[in-house]
Amino acid sequence: MARKAMIEKSKKNPKFKVRTKNRCNICGRSRGYIRDFGICRICFRNLASKGEIPGITKASW
C-alpha cells in the first residue's frame, strides 16, 4: 500500500508536466501500472480472477 502522503502529493499539479506519476486508482501503487485499465498489476490480477474486468479471463490449465 502506498502512503497517504504520497498519494495526495501525486494528485497535486506538478510544476513540470514530466513529473507526473501514474498511480493505481484502487490502491495507489505507482509501480506495475497498466495504462489501459488505470490500475496496477496486482489489482488487475485480483479483478481478473474474480471476473470483474469485461473481456479478460485468467488463464488456467
From TrEMBL:
Keyword terms, alphabetized: Metal-binding, Ribonucleoprotein, Ribosomal protein, RNA-binding, rRNA-binding, Zinc
Tagged with keyword Transmembrane helix: no
Domain of life: Bacteria
Gene Ontology annotations of biological process type: translation
Record InterPro entries: Ribosomal_uS14, Ribosomal_uS14_bact, Ribosomal_uS14_CS, Ribosomal_uS14_sf
Database matches in SUPFAM superfamilies: Glucocorticoid receptor-like (DNA-binding domain)
Pfam name, any one: Ribosomal_S14
GO cellular component term of the entry, any: cytoplasm
One Gene Ontology term of the molecular function aspect: zinc ion binding
Cofactor binding: number and manner: Binds 1 zinc ion per subunit.
Family: Belongs to the universal ribosomal protein uS14 family. Zinc-binding uS14 subfamily.
NCBIfam families: PRK08061.1
Protein name: Small ribosomal subunit protein uS14
Organism: Desulfurella amilsii
Gene: rpsZ
